[in-house]
Automatic annotation (TrEMBL):
Residues 141-167 are annotated as: Disordered. The chain crosses the membrane at residues 20-40, 52-80, 116-137. Keywords: Membrane, Transmembrane, Transmembrane helix. It comes from Streptomyces ambofaciens. This is Integral membrane protein. InterPro entries: DUF2809. The keyword Transport does not apply.
Length: 167
C-alpha cells in the first residue's frame, strides 16, 4: 500500500501554498500600484500602472486556477487586459467611470494604444515570476519528474552500459 503524501494537493493538482502565494502576490501588486501612484506621475505612473494591472490579473488567475501553467496564466491575464482596453473603444467604460470610481479603476475610460505594450510587459513579468517560482518548487513537489544525475526518469539508478558507465 502506498504511503499518503505529506503535501495536500487541490483537485487540480496544485498545492494550497500556490493559492496563498498568489493571494500575497495580488495584495503586493495592489500595494505597489498605490505606492507607484504616490511617488510618481506622468508616464511612469501610467505605464507602470498598466504593467501592474496585468500582473495583478495574472496573480488573480493563479489564485482562481492554481494548477495553470505560467504561460497560460500570462496569456489569460494579457487577453483580459487587452479586452478591457479594446472595450474602451466603445462608450461603455467611460459612462460607467462617471458613475463609479471602482469602474474607472478597473475599466478605465479611453483607449490608448501604448497601453497594449505595457500590458504585455506585465504579462511577461507574471510569466517570468511564475516560471521561476514553479521551477524552484519543482524539486520539492511530490511526484516531480525532475531527473537526477546518473538516474533514470524514475529516480532509480540506471543499469550500467557495456563499458560499465551509467550515462
Amino acid at each position: 500500500m502506498a504511503s499518503p503524501s505529506r503535501t495536500r494537493l487541490c483537485a487540480d493538482g496544485a498545492s494550497p501554498r500556490t493559492r496563498a502565494v498568489a493571494a500575497v502576490a495580488a495584495l503586493s501588486v495592489v500595494g505597489a500600484g498605490l505606492g507607484l501612484r504616490a511617488v510618481a506621475d506622468g508616464g511612469v505612473a501610467k505605464y507602470g500602472g498598466d504593467a501592474l494591472y496585468t500582473l495583478l490579473l495574472f496573480a488573480l488567475v493563479v489564485l482562481v486556477a492554481p494548477g495553470i501553467t505560467p504561460l497560460k496564466g500570462a496569456a489569460v491575464a494579457l487577453a483580459l487586459s487587452w479586452g478591457v482596453e479594446f472595450l474602451q473603444l466603445s462608450d461603455v467604460p467611460a459612462e460607467l467611470s462617471l458613475r463609479s470610481t471602482a469602474a474607472r479603476l478597473v475599466l478605465g475610460s479611453t483607449f490608448n494604444a501604448p497601453d497594449l505594450f505595457w500590458y504585455a510587459v506585465g504579462a511577461a513579468a507574471g510569466w517570468s515570476l511564475g516560471h521561476l517560482l514553479r521551477r524552484g518548487a519543482g524539486a520539492r513537489r511530490p511526484g516531480s519528474r525532475r531527473r537526477l544525475r546518473g538516474t533514470g526518469v524514475s529516480g532509480r539508478p540506471r543499469p550500467p552500459t557495456a563499458d560499465g558507465s551509467r550515462r
